[in-house]
Amino acid sequence: MTRNAIAAHAGTPAEPLLKALAVRLRQPLRVAIAGKVKAGKSTLLNALLGEALAATDAGECTKILTWFQHGSNYRVLLQPHQATAVEARFSRDDGGPIQIDLGGLGPADVDRLVVEWPSTTLKNFVLIDTPGIGSVASEVSDRANRFLVPDEGRATPADAVLYLMRHRHRDDMRLLEAFHDDEVVQPTPVNAVGVLSRADEIGGGKTDSTATAAKIAASYRHDPGLHRVCQTVLPVAGLLAFTGRTLREQEYTAMHRIAGADREPLAAALSSVDRFAEWEGVEDVSAEERRRLLDRFGLFGLRLAVELIRAGRCTNSAQLAAHLIEQSGLRQLVTVLGTQFAARSDVLKARSVLMALGTVLQQLPDATRLQGEVERIWAGAHEIAELRLLNSLRLDPAGLAAEEVEEAERLLGSAGTAPIARLGLEPDADDAEITRAARSALDRWQKRAESPLSLRSTVHAARVLLRSSESLLAQESDG
Ligand SMILES: Nc1nc2c(ncn2[C@@H]2O[C@H](COP(=O)(O)OP(=O)(O)OP(=O)(O)O)[C@@H](O)[C@H]2O)c(=O)[nH]1
Ligand SMILES: [Mg+2]
After folding, report:
1. What is the pLDDT of residues 363-402, one digit of tens each?
2. Which CATH superfamily is domain 2-237+330-342 in?
């Protein structure tokens, strides 16, 4: 399709754009990490990468849109506004975040940075770190807003979005709703996943914080406002995940010494950040080391590590690392990324490309034929019909009862695109069970589609679901 379009527009102003779109189809899925200022975006990105590439806390680079993509060499490109990209100098100390030299430019002069880095995660996803929305400098958040919620008619450069929220905030809701303004152009529940970030801090960093965060996230999942705009909300403590993935032997040794202190003074020291910083109770752990441990673990992480070591559940650094990662919720997030984003990668990318292609074609005088082709692809691709229905059911149940909506969403892949997930079967279901369930879904939706009593919107939804059931049956008989 893009090849046809390129041939038809050779030599016209559209050609370079169309070529760029063709390249895009061959690249990994682009996932933007968005959210308000200091939501923990860069820390989560580093946790996903397993190394500290993105700058956290202060620094100019936190105010610039930064793309992290796989490359065989280490390279940083700086793209100024309305000028050609140049290679930027960078340095990195001892596994810390990369320091990028902006060559005398300020954050406002830079459109984006592209960091190319050899990384397994980046082979599957391009990760895009966005500046905090609602930051003090309004021009910074404007830039992030423009990127995530672009002008009407322009496709967003990201195929999917992880939206970090620290607690439900009016601004979060506004932004998420803006995502949803246009079902076709903006990120929608299909490609937006909510993250209740810095989950360890919820409930004052008590050791049951993550359980509290899980409860809050579950209640968000059933919140009709949020359900409309992102498919699920997961609690994640990015800092614990990052520290777990990069834990050093000497950090374990220091935590082991701390855990060996007398119970009462230790508990008092762990009651606040200041107390821990001032505490002189362990000879071999200096004030500087304590400050560093606070940065790495957070108060909750310190308490957790002490508890685990004292209980004899972590006797080496690998075990402590594994516990931190487990508590962080990173595994669940990666699973969702895999089932919701990676499994749909092709269709999400195709969706972005088709949207962009439609926009390019609208601007050309002689494009009617190609535009017709784009529209036919839109209408004909069942995967795209599934995504659209999944989105629209969140807004309007199309005359279906609540249980039917639940079944329909699952069948459309809301909980994963594997047949077992779509049919809501147990993981050990055998082929015969899958076939039986698919056939029964097919019968049900066929009845709905053919019933003279069904509304038009119900008929439309039932037809899409019918095709989804058919393709599950076909997959089973092929396999
Ligand atoms: N306790 C705790 N602290 C966190 C967590 N994630 C991030 N932080 C801390 O929160 C601060 C901000 O984190 P960043 O990752 O820079 O947040 P950001 O959203 O990228 O911030 P901006 O880019 O400036 O908007 C840092 O001090 C982090 O150490 C977390 O899961 N738990
Ligand atoms: Mg940041």
Report:
1. 666 666 666 666 666 666 788 788 778 877 877 788 999 8
2. P-loop containing nucleotide triphosphate hydrolases (3.40.50.300)
